[in-house]
UniProtKB/TrEMBL annotation:
Keywords: Coiled coil, Signal. PANTHER family: EFFLUX SYSTEM COMPONENT YKNX-RELATED (PTHR32347), UPF0194 MEMBRANE PROTEIN YBHG (PTHR32347:SF29). The keyword Methyltransferase does not apply. The keyword Signal applies. Residues 73-193 form the YbhG-like alpha-helical hairpin domain. GO terms for cellular component: cell envelope. It comes from the Bacteria. It is found in: Cell envelope. SUPFAM superfamilies: HlyD-like secretion proteins. Residues 1-33 form the signal peptide. InterPro entries: HH_YbhG-like (IPR059052), UPF0194_transport (IPR050465). This is HlyD family secretion protein.
Length: 326
């Protein structure tokens, strides 16, 4: 037997192995994209910088829509509401006074003031008239005559002012003043409603059925305005937020069925593309696959069924396009 006999016997096996390698090289994995599992995050901001006086839930608890979550101290807001209500009542009374017009007593007083001014003016004019003939005989000083003339003019001016005041009362309130009073009342009532709404927000409730993901503040804390008092994860099941590579964009449409792989590749989940952005973004570092490093991608969301309801948010996922799970 020659040395080439072992190679001659192994040749069929090597040919089969080479064929398998070629088949494996020719088989292509389905197009895929990666991302993470997400829930709809609902953040409940602090409506006012008040102290937390009650927490009714714990992190991880499932809550129903309208269920109380926590409560802020309402003392300061109640005081502001009382002040706003008092301001509204004052504006209401001012408007009523404007619409009612001047009182009869005010008109009578204005008439009396006009009569007094007219009497004083007659006396001033008469005194000046008596002094005026004496000027030519040098029986009166020029300064005295000037003072008498000025007094007569001043008295006449007071008569005009008293007559104008009476006319103003007789004509009643102007329509523009009533309109201003109505606007002031509307502003005061709006402030009252704003304070009532704020007071209602101090009792923080769940806006929809969800799971409490985080309670950043504890009992007795005073969060600043706008800070998240509670973060909820809403939805019956998570969804996959993925980044579709630019070469696959034309082949991915809303409604397409896909395979979603989470952890165990032998247990895929069925999903459907529910959203895909029209504008590309740079692929995040954790979503880079092979040649996609230097390419753009399109943010998309894949809806999952009820069988994925127990999956937690944040898990990495891999989505394969080209058909649903079998």
């Amino acid at each position: 037997m020659t040395t080439s006999d072992p190679f001659r016997r192994m040749a069929p096996r090597l040919a089969v192995f080479a064929s398998l390698l070629l088949l494996g090289a020719c088989a292509k994995s389905p197009p895929q994209a990666v991302g993470t599992l997400e829930f709809d995050r609902v953040s409940l901001p602090a409506p006012a910088a008040e102290r937390i006086i009650g927490i009714d839930v714990r992190e991880g608890e499932q809550v129903a829509a309208g269920q109380p979550l926590l409560e802020l101290d309402p003392a300061h807001t109640k005081a502001q509401l009382a002040a706003a209500e008092a301001g509204a009542q004052r504006a209401r009374d001012v408007l009523a006074e404007l619409k009612a017009g001047p009182r009869a007593e005010d008109i009578a007083q204005a008439r009396a003031n006009l009569a007094a001014a007219e009497a004083h003016a007659r006396e001033a004019r008469a005194y000046y008239a008596r002094l005026l003939p004496l000027k030519d005989r040098n029986y009166v000083a020029a300064a005295d005559l000037d003072r008498a003339r000025a007094a007569a003019g001043d008295a006449e001016g007071k008569v005009n002012a008293a007559r104008a005041a009476l006319d103003e009362l007789l004509h009643g309130t102007r329509s523009e003043q009533v309109a201003q009073g109505e606007a002031a009342l509307a502003a005061a009532l709006a402030e009252v409603e704003a304070q009532r709404v704020l007071l209602g927000k101090l009792a923080v409730v769940a806006p929809r059925a969800a799971r409490v993901d985080s309670l950043p503040y504890r009992l007795g804390d005073q969060a600043p305005v706008g800070a998240a008092l509670a973060i909820l994860l809403a939805g019956d099941a998570p969804y996959a937020r993925i980044y579709v590579p630019e070469p696959l964009r034309t082949g991915v449409q809303v409604g397409d069925r896909v395979r979603v792989l989470v952890g165990d590749p032998a247990k895929p989940y069925e999903g459907s593309v529910r959203m895909i952005r029209s504008e590309p973004v740079f692929t995040p570092y954790y979503a880079l696959i092979g040649e996609d490093v230097a390419r753009l991608s399109y943010l998309a969301e894949v809806a999952l069924g009820s069988d994925a309801a127990a999956l937690p948010a944040g898990l990495p996922v891999r989505v394969e396009f080209g058909g649903a799970a079998k």
